[in-house]
């Protein structure tokens, strides 16, 4: 089904600009929803081929936290490591109110305005609970792309395509 994300550049201009560039480059096409944690998030952002992932591996700065912008249901946010300014290509959609992420520097850049029901019915790859090293292994996926993930997780959900609309 179709999922529509409304990007609000005033919330997180750096993140919004990176997302625009990634979609324009078809980065997310054929990418897998590799991390699904019920009652928390759904995450994607490793390209279907390792060369594309490597092409976009440069980190971007964090967006400043702004009052009134929170990780509520349906908001879209860049994932990052625990280090500041470590965002690259991975994004997640909040399944629930995850406002506790706000003070950790996770600033939403958009919101799902159509298709949230589609995202909440994706298959979990983590067994329904938080696992510090969720399967599938992100590093192995990053190095081997869809050839590996589809061989090892044949039921994983894949993004068919993405586009920019005005």
From TrEMBL:
Pfam families: Pro_isomerase. Keywords: Isomerase, Rotamase. GO terms for molecular function: peptidyl-prolyl cis-trans isomerase activity. It comes from the Eukaryota. The keyword Ion transport does not apply. It is an enzyme of class 5 (isomerase). InterPro entries: Cyclophilin-like_dom_sf, Cyclophilin-type_PPIase_dom, E_coli_cyclophilin_A-like. Its EC number is 5.2.1.8. Residues 1-147 form the PPIase cyclophilin-type domain. The keyword Oxidoreductase does not apply. This is peptidylprolyl isomerase.
């Amino acid at each position: 089904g179709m999922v529509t994300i409304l990007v609000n550049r005033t919330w997180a201009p750096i993140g919004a600009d990176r997302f625009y560039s990634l979609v324009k480059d078809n980065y997310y096409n054929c990418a897998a929803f590799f991390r699904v944690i019920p009652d928390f998030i759904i995450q994607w952002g490793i390209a279907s081929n390792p060369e594309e992932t490597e092409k976009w591996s440069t980190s971007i700065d964090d967006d400043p936290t702004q009052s009134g912008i929170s990780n509520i249901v349906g908001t879209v946010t860049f994932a990052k490591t625990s280090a500041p300014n470590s965002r690259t290509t991975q994004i997640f959609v909040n399944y629930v109110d995850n406002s506790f992420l706000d003070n950790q520097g996770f600033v939403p850049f958009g919101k799902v305005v159509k298709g949230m029901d589609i995202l909440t019915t994706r298959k979990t790859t983590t067994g329904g609970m938080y696992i510090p090293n969720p399967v599938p292994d992100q590093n192995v996926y990053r190095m081997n792309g869809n050839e590996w993930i589809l061989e090892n997780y044949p039921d994983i959900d894949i993004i068919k395509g993405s586009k920019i609309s005005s």
